[in-house]
Write a structure and sequence with these properties.
With about 280 residues, this protein is an all-alpha fold. The chain has helices at about 5-25, 60-95, 100-115, 115-130, 130-160, 160-170, 175-185, 185-210, 220-230, 240-275.
Length: about 280
């Protein structure tokens, strides 16, 4: 049985897979030590020894990009998982119980949505202090109501379906129905949302690191590399070009992955509906 992937899904898998693969590889190997300072080799142009050149401290740019990807993607992934871990149960609970619980969760989500996501992350990081773990919490806080609202909206429509009504007649409670019948039917939606939130989390982590509230030196990150390069654009424009390009391509890859997954699941649902006629 063959799987027909659409073009956006293929492109998303390739792009995101490249960056994730390089980030994982950087944990065990990089061409040079990304933290090694060699002032004598500062601001070297790309050559056969340093494929993307060196920065103002003589550090290898390619090695920093690889290790910085591990830091940036790690924070974005952890923040997305944190948001899903809290938001998905809240959304299921809200849809199952309704009433004042549903109203309280939704109004609390509205309060969080009243603030721009990056501004809220900067505010939380400022209060908690800079650092990768605090950045995870700051970004994850905004992801919680996103997952809660998405899950709650889809779960409400599933609660009116025949298989859920049959489960209620069989005497199953709200928690069991949510876990056994509602959540499995939301798997496709959750994969799509995870991909989208991962791309947004990557942008947020880059912004936090750019202003000094994310991953702290000497650990490299894409946002920190952009911040360090802003005063050197006249001497070495590639120092800003390379990290900027990888951020754009990584975010594009995860967005294409999310769009491709959505199209793929929609296609399966449509094909299944036609098959039942």
């Amino acid at each position: 049985m063959t799987t027909n992937w659409n073009g956006r899904l293929r492109a998303g898998v390739v792009l995101s897979g490249v960056f994730v693969g390089l980030a994982v590889l950087s944990l065990i190997w990089t061409p040079w030590d990304p933290a090694a300072i060699a002032v004598a080799e500062r601001l070297h142009a790309p050559d056969r020894h340093h494929w993307l050149g060196t920065d103002q401290l003589g550090r290898d740019v390619l090695s920093m990009l690889m290790r910085g990807g591990a830091a940036s993607l790690g924070v974005a992934f952890a923040a997305t998982v944190l948001g899903a871990f809290v938001g998905v149960p809240l959304g299921l609970w809200s849809a199952a119980r309704g009433g004042w619980i549903d109203e309280f969760i939704m109004r609390s989500s509205d309060v969080v949505f009243a603030f721009p996501s990056l501004l809220l992350a900067i505010l939380i990081s400022t209060l908690m202090g800079p650092g990768a773990m605090n950045a995870v919490v700051a970004i994850g806080v905004f992801n919680v109501p996103v997952f809660a609202r998405v899950v709650r909206g889809s779960a409400l429509s599933l609660w009116t379906r025949e298989f859920v009504l049959a489960a209620r007649v069989a005497g199953k409670g709200g928690v069991r129905i949510s876990l056994e019948h509602i959540l499995p039917n939301l798997a496709g939606l959750l994969w799509v949302q995870l991909s989208i939130q991962l791309s947004l989390g990557l942008l947020a982590e880059t912004g936090l690191s750019y202003v000094g509230l994310g991953t702290q030196p000497p650990a490299p990150s894409w946002g920190r590399m952009l911040a360090d390069a802003q005063t050197l654009t006249a001497l070495a424009p590639s120092l800003a070009l390379f990290p900027g390009a990888v951020v754009v391509l990584a975010v594009l890859g995860f967005n294409l992955l999310g769009d491709g997954l959505r199209d793929q699941f929609d296609h399966r649902l449509t094909r299944g509906a036609h098959g039942q006629r």
